[in-house]
Specification:
This protein is an alpha/beta fold. It is built from 7 helices and 8 strands, in the order βαβαβαβαβαβαββα. The structure holds NADP nicotinamide-adenine-dinucleotide phosphate (NAP). NADP nicotinamide-adenine-dinucleotide phosphate binds near residues 57, 85, 181 and 184.
Amino acid sequence: MDIDGKVCIVTGASSGIGAATGRLLSDMGARVVLAARRTDRLQALAAELPGSLAVTTDVTIPDQLRRLVSRTLGTYGRVDVLVNNAGQGLHVPVEELVPDDLRAVFELNVVAPLVGMQAVLPVMRAQSGGGAIVNVSSATSLRVFPGLGGYSATKAALNLLSQVAALEFAASGISVSLVYPSVTATEFHQSLRAGGFVGRGRGIAPDPPELVGSAIAYAIRSGEAHVLVADPPRAIEPGDNQGWGALLARQAPGGAEGRPGSDPPAGPGETEGRR
Ligand SMILES: NC(=O)c1ccc[n+]([C@@H]2O[C@H](COP(=O)([O-])OP(=O)(O)OC[C@H]3O[C@@H](n4cnc5c(N)ncnc54)[C@H](OP(=O)(O)O)[C@@H]3O)[C@@H](O)[C@H]2O)c1
């Protein structure tokens, strides 16, 4: 999908990856709808981006998500893109994982993207040109890291939900893509629901949020199912038996057997690390 002139909702747009994505899509000619809970931040960003709209939204409240979509429709008459980016980490060992924390992060990282997809689906189906949905996952969902069980479980759930949605929505001209950031320089590790940065002291150089923004833009343009945050961004092909593709093959449709491959990426090894 060509981004110029499109109407793009970005959740979690008050900081980090969401704010960088909002800026980039606006630079590419999109009309951007910025959603998060912190109104002051959204309004400050909207003031910078011509033709944009700030809609204060708690994405864990389904009525607020539906209102976000109806405000967008009321303002622009269509919704071309939904970026489900709002999310939170939960970085504690399984032994210490508090069920209520897991429930809360599951609501934000999995249920909210589900409700978001359900809210835009009838709109995208009814309009010409279909739509593009991008769900922001995590590189941690493709490997197994001590200390990240709660968080990576929510993102792994998002992965499967998104892949099934991609198959179900394809006939309506709606793509569903997953983007897999590694450690990124945002407020994320200061805003964890519980725990701390697992890779601390291991010399991981965080990616700039703009790099993730360009991977999200690539996902919108290409409709690729799985997008690796890299410069330039690229599709991950499940089952290519090298690095990320081999890891993804464990989860992708038809890849349940999984083929770990002989050379898995150093990757999030030390949490959400290198490519
Ligand atoms: N940074 C990393 O290392 C990393 C790595 C892999 C994946 N990710 C994923 O990238 C995404 C963006 O994270 P980030 O790194 O940009 O972190 P961030 O700077 O902490 O941003 C998180 C965003 O989510 C919003 N948010 C949180 N709860 C919300 C709610 N209930 N309703 C609406 N918005 C809510 C926050 O805004 P308000 O507080 O204003 O609501 C904020 O804008 C997340 O899905 C995260 O899991 C991040």
